[in-house]
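Morning!

This is the sequence you dropped in the shared folder:
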Amino acid sequence: MLMRGGTSKGAYFLAGDLPADPAARDGLLLRIMGSPDPRQIDGLGGAHPLTSKVAVVSASADPKADVDYLFLQVGVERPEVTDRQNCGNLLAGVGPFAVERGLVAAGDGETSVRIRMRNTGELAVATFPTPGGRVDYTGSAEISGVPGTAAAVVIEFPPGSGPLLPTGRARDTVVGTEVTCVDNGMPTVLIPARSLEVTGYEDPRDLEEDTALADRLREIRLEAGRLMGLGDVENATVPKLSLLAPPRHGGAVTTRTFIPVRCHTSIGVLGAASVAAGLLVPRGVGEGIARLPAPGDRVRVEHPTGFLEVETSVDPGSGDTPPTVRRTAVVRTARKIFDGTVFPRSAGTAPTPAQPSGDNDDSATR
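The structure's back. Tokens below.
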């Protein structure tokens, strides 16, 4: 099933319909998505990291969950498939997909699906309308970065088991730059845009074309990854890097987020959850930049195509007690695009990566 989840699009599979061997599975997915090729002309991929994604769903053996969700990022120009990050956007489609495939019985009115995210082991609960016991994708909810309206999918994240501040500090100095390293579902490095000699309001493409900025961000990411306990992140898609600037449209903060090489045209759900929580950490780099809402109000995270609102609360801690997250929830939408049979490229016919063209898109795992 091809679905839009939040501001991403991906292919959703039942785990039993894919090879059990990870190498065989990944090889098949590359052929299904049309990678490696900057256009992904011979597969389902949309020639961008945000549209070259896969969700693998199965019934869960965990008594706290109904289904398991494994997210796989499929490279665009490189023959790579990675499970080293999660995706909160495709997560929005997991509950409806589980009902569509009969893994979870629908309620009459609305249905809540408990989801274990296998990439991290964390849990989420997605609630969405199911009038008459059928998923209804129509509704009045709007999210920035997606045209039109659709049914709301409310996703609540119980507090994670890992620390909110992986380094144990509200601020770290990385490559001469003050940052806040935070993980509220997505390892993220918060960086004041001004410290990198940019405004934070630039068009994503302009930021991508700034080679000096790219070199600096790479250095920061590699060192921050080690500080966050992620090891060598040279070939990983985490941590994400989020540049912070004062808000322009009534929100809490303006962001430009690198995923990790391309600059996101919006912001990921879990990335926004980490940004929102990071802004609430006392003495973090967001101080003096963000305009925080009143306690209990949603944190509106501005991005290049609009905003994403996060309901979050943080216990600031005291003394030797570190800050912790009390609650995180977001409103997303999802839509079924088609349900059918995909015919993958034949095995053994992987193409030589095409030469970049004027509308070339890079892989998120470069």
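Headline: The two ends are 27 Å apart (CA to CA).

More detail when I'm at my desk.
O.
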